[in-house]
């Protein structure tokens, strides 16, 4: 019998966007582009998800370059993967503020084992995007930053939410990271497809770290209250 780990790893390996994107936008697929990301994420899921415990989904926006774009694990940068999860990472030790916040919250929740026994974090769009910045360097891009991009990936988003639900996750409640455009998009999508009975939206970790860092303890408390499902 397959476990959540088996199904998640198979899902990650199968991720592929075959449509066309607006000019200047590149899709980022760590599972196809990086053997390190596939190996690290597979080790992570085998460590924490090799069971059939009931879990709720948490959906963020889409992967970023310095977190899951490298590790293949949502909101887990290489630093946290090594220090908090005890999993080796042979690549660069990048730091992502969102990951820092999430692992502080997980510590307050009761630790990584307790948290991942109850929750699975991924993204509304499971692959990320980049554009070339004015400085000539790639920068992160969100699926909702461009209407043409949102339209292009809409069927891909729907298909992959359906696929993840079919892995066996709970559908009474889904948590959403992002109370602006991400929440608005997700609620409209859920009205159409009825994926979940209820959506609880929380401020995105990046927003908290960038604009509300002094209030971080209050936001962690808010998260912990929301996770009492």
Fold blueprint:
Elements: H1 4-14, E1 25-28, H2 30-33, H3 35-48, E2 56-60, H4 68-71, H5 78-83, H6 97-109, H7 112-116, E3 119-123, E4 128-132, E5 138-141, H8 147-165, E6 173-177, H9 181-193, E7 198-202, H10 205-211, H11 216-226
Parallel strand pairs: 2-3, 2-6, 6-7
Antiparallel strand pairs: 1-4, 4-5
Organism: Pedobacter caeni
Domain Uracil-DNA glycosylase-like: 48-228
InterPro entries: Phe_SMUG2-like (IPR032579), Uracil-DNA_glycosylase-like (IPR005122), Uracil-DNA_glycosylase-like_sf (IPR036895)
Notes on the structure:
It comes from Pedobacter caeni. InterPro entries: Phe_SMUG2-like (IPR032579), Uracil-DNA_glycosylase-like (IPR005122), Uracil-DNA_glycosylase-like_sf (IPR036895). This is Uracil-DNA glycosylase-like domain-containing protein. Pfam families: UDG. The chain has helices spanning 4-14, 30-33, 35-48, 68-71, 78-83, 97-109, 112-116, 147-165, 181-193, 205-211, 216-226; strands at residues 25-28, 56-60, 119-123, 128-132, 138-141, 173-177, 198-202. The chain has 229 residues and is of the alpha/beta class. The chain has a single domain (23-226), classed as Uracil-DNA Glycosylase, subunit E (3-Layer(aba) Sandwich). The strands form 2 sheets. Strands 3-2-6-7 form a 4-stranded parallel β-sheet, with helices on both faces. A 3-stranded antiparallel β-sheet has the order 1-4-5, with no helix packed on it. It is globular, with a radius of gyration of 17 Å.
For this structure, what is the CATH class? Answer: Alpha Beta
Strands, count: 7
SS element count, helices: 11
Reported CATH architecture: 3-Layer(aba) Sandwich
Provide the residue-averaged pLDDT.
Answer: 95
> Could you say what the CATH topology is called?
Uracil-DNA Glycosylase, subunit E
Protein structure class: alpha/beta
Instruction: Give the low-confidence spans.
Output: none
Give me the CATH superfamily. Answer: Uracil-DNA glycosylase-like domain
Q: How would you sum up the global shape?
A: globular
Number of domains: 1
Report the biggest beta sheet as strand number plus sense, adding barrel if it closes: 4 strands, parallel
Distance between the termini: 27 Å
Biggest sheet strand order reads 3-2-6-7
Radius of gyration from CA coordinates:
17 Å
* Helicity, as a percent range: 40-55%
Protein name: Uracil-DNA glycosylase-like domain-containing protein
